[in-house]
Amino acid sequence: MVNRAPADEPVAPASPAIRTVLGDIAPADLGICDAHDHLFLRSPQLPGQELDDAEAAAAELSAFRAAGGAAVIQWTPYGMGRRAAELPRLARESGVRIVSATGLHQAAHYSPELLTRVGADLAGLFVSELTEGIGGTGPRAGMIKVAGGFHGLDRHARQTMTAAAEAQRATGAAIGVHLELGTGALDVLDLLCGTLAVPPDRVILGHLNRSPDLVVHRAAAGAGAYLAFDGPSRAHHATDWRLPEAVAALADAGFADRILVGGDTTTAGARSVNGGPGMPYLLCRHRERLVRTLGADLVTRFLTANPARAFAADWARAPHHSR
Ligand SMILES: [Zn+2]
Question: What's the gap in Å between 235 CA and the centre of ligand 1?
Answer without folding.
Answer: 15
